[in-house]
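REVIEWER CHECKLIST
Item 1: Sequence provided? yes
Item 2: Single chain? yes
Item 3: Sequence as submitted:
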Amino acid sequence: MINVAILSFWHVHAGDYAKQVEEHNDTVIAAIWDEIPERGRQEAANRGVPFYENLADLLADETIDAVVVVTPTNMHRDVMVAAANAGKHIFTEKVVATTLHEANEILEAVREKCVKLTVSLPRLNDGYTLAIQDIIEQDLLGDLTLVRIRLSHNGATANWLPEHFFNRELCGGGALIDLGCHPMYLSCLFLGMPESISATYGYVTGKEVEDNAVAVLNYENGAIAVVEAGFVNARSPFSIEINGTKGTLLYGAPETDRLYVSSETCADDGWQMVELHDKRQSAFDQWIEHIQTGSEAEENIGIALALTQLMEAANLSVAEQRVVRVDELSE
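Item 4: Structure as written out by the authors:
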């Protein structure tokens, strides 16, 4: 049995990850720590497990094998480096860190101590993503020229997001670094790493962080990716549009869980519906498998590192009102 500690219940998905630990046949919640002690004590009492006031004491406990990091984003670097140095395997909410430099410090500690790291990038494992990758590999779209992916909800206008999700220091940003992470890493999956990025942020509800965002990824071959995210849209569906020299792919709008392709390589000139693939195992389940087999989450970590780099570049683009080359960031 793998003894897992939950480090913080700050993030809105912390409870979901705790449930995954509880439901997996090979894991159990062994302890809880939280930067807000009252919250952590209550979560520990609810589950009948020990609460640690001091993170160092928890990490020194040799009976704990692994940790789930769901702290504020600005704590990721210090918490994960400490966990890795203590020999604990790490599962974490995206992003890895707020800067590329901090993310690389985490990865260096992970490699040095030979612990297993996996980042929660759930849409990498969804059936539509796997089906889209198959369509691209079959060359039905030709050379890709434009990717546009949107993910939004009304968390700011309907006031259901916790207030701390609008704290710039804790989060490292707003709608783009939270929801926009998913369109961003999917764009990288489909097109690869861009040459440069520019971003525009809107502040519809007057929060400290952006609640409406667009980022444009520019590629050396002329391709473009458009990433859109917001906390101010009541019924905006998650949608993917991919265009290429031979065809176009549409997913999610207006028909949820429907994937359509129109390609000049097909006999039918119209739109064809494509069956979605089965989902892969969740990122959490993959993490447990990496721990048990000694394998590495190479694709997951590579995409997570690129995601951190692009988010830092997007924030810099807004701050300095310019296009930012992704290779100018400090490693």
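Item 5: Key structural point noted by reviewer: Residues 2-115 form a domain with the Rossmann fold fold (CATH 3.40.50.720).
Item 6: Recommendation: ____
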